[in-house]
Structure formats: C-alpha cells, structure tokens
Write a structure and sequence with these properties.
Elements: H1 9-15, H2 24-33, E1 37-41, H3 53-60, E2 66-70, E3 76-77, E4 80-81, E5 95-98, H4 102-114, E6 119-122, H5 132-148, E7 151-153, E8 159-162, E9 167-170, E10 185-189, H6 192-204, E11 211-214, H7 223-231, E12 238-243, H8 249-262, E13 265-270, H9 284-289, H10 293-301, E14 305-307, H11 310-320, E15 331-335, H12 338-350, H13 360-366, E16 380-381, H14 392-404, E17 411-416, H15 421-437, E18 442-446, H16 450-462, E19 467-468, H17 471-481, H18 493-498, H19 500-510, H20 516-523, E20 530-533, H21 536-546, E21 550-555, E22 568-572, H22 577-590, E23 598-603, E24 609-617, E25 625-630, H23 635-638, E26 641-645, H24 650-658, H25 663-667, H26 677-692, E27 699-708, E28 715-717, E29 720-723
Parallel strand pairs: 1-2, 1-5, 5-6, 6-7, 10-11, 10-12, 12-13, 13-14, 15-16, 15-17, 17-18, 18-19
Antiparallel strand pairs: 3-4, 8-9, 8-11, 20-23, 21-22, 21-23, 24-25, 24-27, 25-26, 27-28, 27-29
Helix pairs in contact: 2-7, 4-5, 7-8, 8-10, 11-17, 12-17, 14-15, 15-16, 19-20, 19-26, 21-22, 24-26
C-alpha cells in the first residue's frame, strides 16, 4: 500500500521523457495521467459511496505515487492519514481530485493553486448541463483554474485511468473489472456514460486500455487537447475519440496532422452528425453539404478513421493497434466453408473491398493442400478436410502464408466455422504465429460458440489479435481501415502568389463592393458578355447590340437565388427587352428585393454540360471546402457532388469530376462529343485557391451553372453567388 512519503522527483522526471514536446501544456497534462502525488478532496469513508471509489481504485491498481485523502471528518482512510484541508498536506501535490459539490469546486481549485498543484479533476455535476445558474458556476470554475494556474478536467466527468502507473482516478463501476493496460490503445470522450461502456466493453473483449479519460463539460481541457497529449505518450499507439461536437477545427486539424507524423492512429466517433444539426444556407452547395463536411474531409485527408458506433470504435481500435497497416483494398479470403466464403465475398463487396483472383503461382502452391472439391481462386475454401491430415493444425497457417505472398492481396481474412476444442486451440496458435511472420494483416472471424472455442479465443486474446464475431464485422472494419485513393492537395508557391489579388477581390465581392464580372475575370473563368441596364431604354439598346435572343436577370448583389423571385428570363428577343426590363423590376419590387441595381442583359451561351462549383468556409478553424457537381436547376434534386478541402490542383479537380455519377455527360455520353473537362477543372482549381485564402471567414460562394462546351470550347460561368452567412443584410 502506498504511503505518504515524499515523491521521488528524479523518477518523476525520468517518467516525463515520453511527454517531451514544444507545447508546455502537454507537460501539464502529463500530471493528470501520471502525477507524482494525488490529493482526494472530499473522499468518503463509506464503502457504498461513489466518493469512496477513487481512493479504493488507486490502492487496488497499485498507484505508484503518494496519496493524500482530504476530509476533516476522518483521521485515517484505508490506512492513510487523512488531512483536514489541502494546506495541511506536508508534501507537494501534483493532482487534486475534487469530490465535493459543484458550489464548492471553484474554491478547491483555488486552494489547489496555492499548494502548487498543476491539475484538478472535477467530478461533480450541476454545472452548465443544468442551465443558466450552472453555467455561471462553470464559468467561475474556469476562471478559478486560469487564475490559479491549474488545468481543470471536467466538471461532470468520470475521471482518468492511466494503466502503466496504476493511476485510476475515477468512480465508474467499469473500473471494478480487472483491467490490463498493455494494448497501447487510449480512449478520450465527453460522455461519462459512453466512456464507462467503452471501458467495460474493452475489458470484455480483452482490450486492456492503456489510458481512459472522461472530459465531461470541458470547462478548460477538451478532448482534442487531451488526445494530443496522449499522442505524445510512448505507451499509446491508438487513440479512440468520442465527441458530441468538435468545434475547434484548427485544433482538430493539428491533432490529425500530429497523429500522422507520429505514425499512430486516431479513431473517431462523433454523435450529432445528422441533418437535424444542419444550419440554414444560402447556396445550393451549403444546403446540400451540411455542417460536418469539413470535419469529414479533414479526417479523410490525414488518415483518421471515422466510425458510426461504439462497437466499430472498439473493433477498429483493437485491430489497428495489433495488426499491420493495410496497403490497399484487396482481400484474400480463406474459409473452412464454401457458404461462409460466399458470405465474405458479399460483405466485402458492400464495403468496397476487392476479392482478386489469386495468381497461377499461388493456386499451384495451394493445390496440394486444398482438396479437389475445395476452391483455389478466392475465396479459398480449404474445407474441413484440411484438418484430417498429419500436421493439420499448421496447414491453415501455410495456406495463409501462400495467399499473403500473392502480390494482388493486401489483407488475409480467415473465416473459421466449427473448428472447436483442442483443434481450435491448435489452429489459434498456428494463426497467431503466422500473423507475426506476415508482412500483411491477418483478420479472423470465428463462427462458433464461445463455450466451444474458449481456449482458442484466449490464445488470440493473449497475442493481442482480435477475433471478429461475424463476417460482416470483419468486412466493415477492413473497409474502414483500408486506405482511400484521395490525397491532400498541395498548393504551390506560384499558385499562392497568384491568388493574393483574387482573394482580396473575392472579399470585396462578398461585401458587395465588387462586381461578379471583375471577380470572374480575376479568377480566369470565362463569362458571357453582359451589360447592366438601369432603365428600359438601356435594356433594349443592350439587347439590340447582341443582335440575338438574350438572358435578362434582376441585378442585386444580395439576392441569392434570382429564379426564386422570377428574376431570370431566357431567350428574350431584342424587341421585347424593354417590356421584360419593366416586368423584372416589378417582380423585384413585389418580392422586396434589396439594393436592386437594374437588370443584367447577358448573351445566351450555347447549350453544354451544366456544372455547379461551390465553396464554403466557416469561422471554426476548418479549411474551406470546394465542391463540384452536376449543376443547373436540378442540382439539389440529384445532389451529385464531390468535395475536397481547398485548395485543389487542376489534376485533383479533374479527379473530383470523374467521381461524379454524371461524369459520362462530360466524357461523351452515347456518342456525344466530350466536354472541355480541362477548362472545367481549371475553373474549380481557381475558385479553390481564392477561397483557401479566406480560411477562417464565413463564406458561401457558388457558380451555377458553369456551362461546359465541347472539348476545346471552354467553360462559362453564367451566374454567381458570393455571400457571407453572418452578413446582417442577408
């Protein structure tokens, strides 16, 4: 049992090597996970009390540092001297566990600062989650921590576990389970209830979490900052994140970059990503994409794995932490049942995984091992007969090795059926040994009851090798872990320099101080010839000058969608232009359109493929998003769009176009001439570079339609919207 002796400062410094970082806050956070000493203010001596659990867990888990119970009602707790208050503790305190009511928590944080503590965990509820009065208490707590120089975790959280040092500062009942800590997998989450479930389920599947942190209301420390600290820890290779919202895009982007540079893995589950949370948007693009597209694209760019439920969170984290990385999406399936192989093929297809036919060399090597009534191509059906021969327990490993050595395979997936008892255990030993030798990952699904396969499953568990409960779970996890083809865009120095003036002009256009025509010219995007008429006579003269039918549109920079008010008429004959001018101005008055500058008289562009180019940016720290899709009046009906973080190159813009379901319209559908894809891609790239220069500002930008002519004929922006959602004039 730890005593209250002075902490070994030299040992603590040695432990801190794994937290070396240019960010000083990471050293502060290290004191939450492996402090030299812990004080528990408000700890209870009643065994049934939640406030008694943190002390019991610290002692049971063999916490290495000094422990100081603080409660004036006790002289001693669990054999440790109990102090009346923090000031009475004779030795330095790193971490304070605050087990008092919400109304008293700020005062304890102030006291923590006076004794030199660098961090405090606030367990109490009754803060911002309860309403205005609680929010005031939370703000007081935040201020107390900042003034005292104490980082605050919580309030309304369930605490911290850091297995390598026995640090178990929590009251969750899930900590009653035997908990290992060698997996290298850490968890950080806002919800205490979800966090407790993750801890319990991880223990159930044999995944001993190295670290577990509940951030609660996040008055000070949020889960992204805690996750960043865990990535710096040598004992952690995988971080699971559960968030209700990740609002600081800059911090999340930095975390994702940090994880990639460190060669580690980040697996994220975010709730509340449904349409219910979607903000109102002026542009078609903004209304189609919703609020989380920048988060999703940022995650994709830096290799973060996004999951949809707790079971996926755990399955992916357990797998990515224990097997080699997948280098592609090609799976070699090996099964003891033809039916299970067909099932695996179906599930792989539904998760965009390929099952390539094995090459002649692999099939020739497999032939002596697989019975004539089995299958060699992929899936490989070894049948139950494989195990009716000498050395059968090692035969499956030999098959796996042959399949893994085929250059067309990125993952070996083994589907075991009723291979049970001692044979099952022998097969488990063979497969774990084989997996350790392969340079590709090996996944296992075992379709048999736990009771008949316990010994074998224990062997897999001891080797840190997860076993999937179904073929669908295996395929879904593989689909999440397999790399995507998207690569981050790189902006060249020349491109960045060329956009300086354009960025300023875009800003002016958003503010209504520059014309759409000037902006399009600066972007290098062709546009129809046009004239702004301020009276019917000017409109007639402009139309006569074109000498053919024209398009006429209400000219108002604050009008997002002209067609919504009947503000666009096409194919107007020059003789009718004056009357159409009066009609359009009347419609603008009828719909109370602000700041009408007249009517735009525009030449009609020959028909072509209509695209939409959209860009959105927010003041949330995420990079702006560039989107291209099939445009025109059916844009929102079909919602056929592709998005990336801005900026993109012309080559990447063309790749976005190729992802559209409507790509055949550009490529030359049913004998039609191909469209000028190069011009369209250049337009997308140009917009993306300009919008990237406005990162951090609220913006919706849209060209709809961009009419793309036949190859060599160019692309023409017919209508443009540049809008700030926060503009009070909108």
């Amino acid at each position: 049992m730890p005593d209250a002796a002075e902490p070994d400062v030299d040992s603590a410094k040695a432990d801190s090597h794994q937290w070396a970082s240019s960010d000083p806050s990471l050293h502060e956070l290290s004191r939450i996970l492996h402090p030299r000493s812990v004080a528990l203010v408000g700890v209870s001596g009643r065994a049934e009390s939640l406030n008694a659990r943190p002390l019991r867990y610290l002692l049971d888990r063999g916490y290495e540092g000094a422990i100081y119970p603080i409660n004036p009602n006790y002289d001693e707790l669990e054999g440790l001297r109990c102090y009346e208050n923090l000031a009475d503790v004779p030795e330095p305190v790193d971490l304070v566990l605050v087990l008092v009511a919400a109304s008293q928590s700020a005062a304890i944080v102030r006291q923590a600062g006076t004794v030199g503590a660098t961090a405090a965990v606030i367990f109490a509820s009754g803060f911002a989650e309860t309403g205005a009065a609680g929010a005031e208490l939370q703000e007081e707590l935040r201020g107390a921590g900042r003034k005292a120089g104490v980082r605050v975790l919580g309030p309304n959280c369930q605490g911290v576990i850091y297995a390598p040092t026995g640090m178990a500062a929590t009251f969750t009942a899930a900590a009653d389970r035997p908990l290992g800590g060698q997996s290298g997998v850490a968890y950080v989450g806002q919800s205490g209830a979800v966090g407790g479930s993750v801890l319990d389920l991880a223990a159930e599947m044999g995944l001993g979490l190295t670290a577990w942190v509940s951030t609660g209301n996040q008055a000070d420390l949020d889960l992204v900052e805690v996750a960043a600290a865990l990535v710096e820890d040598d004992a952690v290779q995988v971080v699971m994140l559960y968030a209700e919202v990740i609002s600081d895009g800059a911090a999340y982007t930095h975390l994702a970059q940090q994880v990639r540079v460190a060669g580690k893995h980040l697996v994220v589950l975010v709730s509340g990503r449904s349409d219910a949370g979607r903000r109102a948007a002026a542009s078609h693009t903004g209304s189609m994409l919703g609020d989380d597209v920048a988060f999703v694209l940022t995650s994709k760019r830096y290799g973060v794995t996004l999951v949809d439920d707790v079971d996926e969170l755990l399955a992916v984290a357990a797998t990515v932490g224990s097997v080699r990385d997948m280098q592609g999406r090609r799976v070699g399936v090996i099964t003891t049942s033809g039916g299970a192989g067909s099932l695996a093929a179906d599930h792989c297809a539904s998760h965009d995984l390929e099952l390539p036919e094995l090459g002649p060399d692999a099939q020739d090597r497999l032939a002596p091992l697989v019975p004539d009534f089995g299958a060699l191509a992929n899936p490989v059906d070894v049948t139950a007969q494989l195990f009716n021969r000498d050395g059968s327990a090692r035969a499956l490993g030999e098959v796996c090795t042959i399949v893994a050595e085929d250059p067309e395979v990125d993952l070996v997936a083994v589907v075991l059926t009723m291979v049970t008892g001692e044979l099952g255990a022998a097969v488990a030993k063979d497969l774990t040994a084989t997996a350790s030798r392969l340079d590709k990952p090996l996944f296992v699904t075992w379709l048999a009851g736990n009771g008949q396969t316990k010994q074998g499953r224990d062997i897999f568990r001891a080797a840190g090798m997860p076993v999937f409960k179904s073929v669908g779970d295996l395929a879904r996890t593989a689909g999440l872990l397999a790399p995507s083809s998207s690569q981050p865009a790189q902006q060249s120095t020349a491109e960045a320099a060329d956009t300086d003036d354009t960025v300023g002009l875009l800003r002016e256009c958003v503010a209504g101080r520059a014309s759409e025509a000037r902006l399009l010219t600066a972007l290098g995007i062709s546009q129809p010839a046009s004239t702004v008429a301020t009276n019917a006579h000017e409109a007639a003269a402009a139309a006569e000058g074109f000498g053919r039918p024209v398009a006429m549109k209400v000219y108002a920079t604050l009008l997002a969608h002209k067609s919504d008010v009947g503000g666009v008429l096409l194919g107007v004959l020059p003789a009718d232009a004056a009357d159409v001018y009066d009609e359009l101005m009347s419609r603008a008055t009828e719909h109370a359109v602000d700041e009408v500058g007249g009517v735009l008289v525009q030449e009609m562009i020959s028909p072509g493929t209509e695209l939409i180019i959209g860009a959105t940016s927010a003041a949330d720290g995420y990079a702006p998003v560039i989107t291209v899709g099939i445009g025109g009046v059916t844009t929102e009906l079909y919602r056929d769009v592709a998005s990336e973080l801005a900026p993109v190159t012309a080559e990447q813009a063309e790749a976005m176009l190729r992802r559209l379901q409507g790509w055949p319209l550009l490529a030359g559908f049913r004998g039609a001439a191909p469209a000028d894809v190069k011009a369209a891609a250049e337009a997308v790239a140009s917009v993306s570079r300009a919008v990237a220069g406005l990162a951090g500002q609220e913006l919706e930008f849209e060209i709809n339609p961009l009419i793309v002519a036949e190859d060599g004929g160019g692309a023409f922006a017919v209508d443009l919207l540049a809008h700030s959602p926060s503009d009070s004039r909108s």
